[in-house]
Amino acid sequence: MTAKDTRFVPVALGDACNAAIHNLGEGIAESGADVDVGPLPTVVGDPAQLILVFQNLISNAVKFAREGVPPRVVIREEEGREVTVSVADNGIGIEATSQDIFEIFRRLNPRQDYPGTGIGLAICRRIIQRHGGRIWFKTSPGRGSTFFFTLGGEEIEATDEGRTGLPPTS
Questions:
Q1: Beta-sheet pairing, 144-151 with 83-89
Q2: Number of Cβ within a 10 Å radius of residue 36
Q3: Separation of alpha carbons 61 and 54, rounded Å
Q4: pLDDT tens profile 11-46
Q5: Three-class SS string for 121-155?
Q6: Cα(61)–Cα(84) distance, integer angstroms
Q7: What tens digit of pLDDT does each residue of 98-143 get?
Q8: CA-to-CA dists, residue 117 to 63, 104, 112, 131, angstroms
Q9: CA angle 50, 166, 15 (to 5 degrees)
Q10: Which distant-in-sequence residues (6+ apart) come within 8 Å of 116 by Cβ?
């Protein structure tokens, strides 16, 4: 079965975000990162793919930290008509470029300075598009970046525990 075949189910975005944080636990602890997650809605989507979006964005926020400054990542739902989530960091930011940073294998920093394959943001864009949404960012070089994404499905009421399709985080 491919990702396209996976049925969408109710997903508590807070649980998806916490699962991503759990998956990144060692790297977060080693960096001394502070990850602050605010209340997030429950939406209809693919739980594994939404975990991957959070995992890629949080991992990048930790990886691209400014030297000597502990990473701080703030994840919030933004006000508006559609479900919009922001992932903000206090890292190095992104220098002005005409390149599409969401293009596969697009690297903006030298491999010797920052490890990675250059596919994380491309994966995020594909997942968000599959969910009927869009992804974009605002940045301030040397001060950090904020990535925003929308999800096309409407927010739904909270569901009973265990119905999110997410693995346990304990």
A1: antiparallel
A2: 10
A3: 10
A4: 999 999 999 999 999 999 999 999 999 999 999 999
A5: HHHHHHHHHHCCCCEEEEEECCCEEEEEEEECCCC
A6: 18
A7: 456 777 655 555 555 555 666 788 899 999 999 999 999 898 888 8
A8: 13, 9, 12, 24
A9: 70
A10: 63, 107
For the cut 60, the answer to whether the pLDDT of residue 96 exceeds it is yes
Under a CB-based contact definition with an 8 Å cutoff, are residues 115 and 63 in contact? yes
Per residue, the 3-state secondary structure of the chain, as one string, reads CCHHHCCCEEEEHHHHHHHHHHHCHHHHHHHCCEEEECCCCEEEECHHHHHHHHHHHHHHHHHCCCCCCCCEEEEEEECCCCEEEEEEECCCCCCCCCCCCCCCCCCCCCCCCCCCCCCHHHHHHHHHHHCCCCEEEEEECCCEEEEEEEECCCCECCCCCCCCCCCCCC
| Cα gap 39→26, rounded to integer Å | 24
